[in-house]
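User: C-alpha cells for both sequences below?

Assistant:
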Amino acid sequence: MLDDIGTDAVKTGMLASPDIVKAVTDILKEYKIKNIVVDPVMIAKSGDALLSKEACNTVIKELIPIATVVTPNIQEAEAMLNIKIESIDDMKRAGAMIRDMGCNFVVIKGGHMNGKDLMATDVVFDGKEFFLFSETRFDTKNCHGTGCTFSAAIAAGLAKGYPVLKAIEQAKAFITAAIRDSFNIGNGHGPTNHFTGMKTGW
C-alpha cells in the first residue's frame, strides 16, 4: 500500500511483540511517514497487561521517538513511567516525561480518572505548553474501543491537514459523541458509535 498509493497518516495500536514493534518502526522510518499517531495499547480494560515488559520497552525505545502524537491512557502512562497518576498535575508530569522520550505531542487521556468527575479531561503537552481538553463524561459500560477510535480520529484529522491541536480537539469531540451514542449490545462492554457524525452532523 505504501509503495502504491502512500499515506498521509498512520495510527498504530497493539503491537504484540518486540519484533513486531521493531518491524513497524523500520517501515515507518523507511517510508518517512510524516504523521504518526501511537496508541500504546498496553493495558486491557480489565486492568490486565497486554504486552510483555520487553515489548513495552521496545515501544518506548523505538516507536515513541518517531511519533507525532502519543495517546496513553492513565493506566498505560503509569505502566510506562512506573508512577501513580491521581490528578491533573500528575497527568501533566506524565505528559512531560513521555514527551522527553522523543515524540512531538503527548495526550494523557483522562477517561479513567475519578469516575465521579462530571468531565473527562485529557492533558496535552507539546514540549512547551499544556492544554486541557474537557468534554462531558457519560456513565455507560458501552465504551469498547474508545482509545482506538480516539487515536484513529486524530490520525484522520492529521491526514486532512489539520494542525495537531485541532486534530486532537476534533477527535475529542468525536469520541465524546461516539460514547454518548454508543450501542448497548450483548452482556459485556458495548461499542462506541462510529456513525455518530452521520447522525448528528458532527
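Moving on to the next sequence.
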Amino acid sequence: MAISVLDVRDTFAVPHVPARASVATAETAPRRLPVTIVSAGLIGVLQAVGLLAVALTGLDGFLSSASRPAGWIVGGGLLLLAAWIVACAGSGAALIDGAGRKLLMGVAYAELVVVAMLLVVATSMSIPTPGDIPVPVLGLMAVAVPVGKLLLAAAPSAQQWVAAGPRTKVRRADPVQAHRLLATVTLGIIGLSLTAVAVLAPVQSGGPNDPASAVFTQP
C-alpha cells in the first residue's frame, strides 16, 4: 500500500527543478538595423534638413517682397513649417530607435494630401514653377519622397523592427573612472605645460604696442 501511494504521488507531483537550473543564461545578441529602417529614417532627417535650408535661404526674400501677406499669415506659415521640420526629423529618429512608425506614416500621408492639393491649384491657375519645370514632373518629384517613406516603413523588416520595441541602451563605463591614472597624468602634463609657458615666455607690458599703455597714454 505504501508503495502504491508513493507511486501515485510521484506520478502527479511536479518534478522538483533547482532554481539555478531554471534561470536562463542565454545572452541576447545585438539587434541590427534593417536597410529599410535606415533608409526611411535618413529620408525623414534629410527632408527636415532640406526644408530648413530652403526656409533659411528664401525667408529673407519672402519677407522683403512687396507682395508679402499679412503678419498673422506669415506667423502661421512659419509655425506650420517648423512643425513640419520637427515632425520629419522626429519621425525618422523614432523609426530608427524602434519607438514606432505611426508618426512617419502620418506625416507621409499628410504630405501626399498637401501635394495633391497643390497640384490641383497649380493646374487650375498659372503659377510659376522653379526652373520652369512642368507641373506633372514637379508633382512626381514631390510625391516620390512620401511614397518612398511609406513603402520603406511598410516593409516586413520594418514592421518586425518596430514590433520588437525600442533598442536597449548599453551602459558604458565612465572613461575618467576607468582610466583615472591616465586622466590624472594628462591633467598634470597640461598644467605643467601652461606653467612653463607662463614662466619661460612672460608677456611684456609697457611697450608702445601694448593696448593698455595706448589707452592711458595722453597725446
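User: Anything stand out in the second?

Assistant: Confidence is low (pLDDT under 50) at residues 17-29, 212-219.
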